[in-house]
Amino acid sequence: MQKRKKKIYTIIILLLANLFLSSYIFFDKNGEIAFLNVGQGDSELIRTKEGQIVLIDGGPTAQVLEELGKELPYWDKTIDLVILSHPHADHLVGLNYVAKKYKIKKVIEGSKASDTPEYKTWQNIKKQKNIPTVRLSKGSRIILSKNESMDVLWPEKNYDDKDLNNDSLVINFTAEGKKYLFTGDAGSKVLEKIGEKLKADYLKVPHHGSKTALTQKALSDINPKKAIIEVGENSYGHPAQSILGLLKKNRIPYFLTLNGSQFLYY
User: Fold this and answer.
1) Cβ–Cβ < 8 Å for 170, 190
2) Domain boundaries, the chain
3) What's the pLDDT at 14?
4) Helix 117-128 vs helix 89-101: crossing angle, to nearest 10
5) Which of 88-102, 149-163, 226-240, 249-263 has the lowest mean pLDDT?
6) Could you give the angle at the alpha carbon of 154 between the alpha carbons of 148 and 158, nearest 5°?
7) Which of 59, 121, 201, 237 could form a disulfide with 43 if both were Cys (CB 3.0 to 4.6 A apart)?
8) Mean of the pLDDT values across residues 146-150?
């Protein structure tokens, strides 16, 4: 009997602790950007000061659900906006799992679609759940609140590159006077075309830190205070030593999601 009571008390304490933590997350008025540890892929969660939830990409597996479960109140299964940078599996597949478990109010994508099985699944889920999709290109702006907005810097309208990575949405998120640059897998040649509009305080390094991710010119245009590389165990050589060397040369501290999710607050 005593063991049973002890077990019940333990469960109650755990439930109360979970409720407290969830309430703290829900009522905390600070904005948060989480670069989620989803393995060899990209996924970023933004919780605005107004309480809006924005998810950029979903990584390559269902692991994103575990990470979302850590960051969002367990009772809230609504995501206000999902942004798909480009339809490669390591950015897309996790969104198929997210869409089955969460209510997604709206989706934003770039101009380029795909004929891959995972993208067809994504399209079918959106159709079944009546999730509206808007395709944006350079010059578009997403207004989240009075002090939070997103400027789409790339791709240009009707831009078509044989490398789908270079069709990635490149977005500069402005919040409380700070800029956060989300680059998808866009290569350095794309960043150099964008130029000075890249300037940001924080950089999500493109394409998991591949050797074509950055050049000195692109990095100088961005001029970030901090960089985050979203990467997992892989056989591609990500992040490239040349990119890490470039960041070190410019005295820019960097962090890897391989070591756990990374967080910024505003």
Assistant:
1) yes
2) 28-265
3) 42
4) 30
5) 149-163
6) 130
7) 59
8) 96
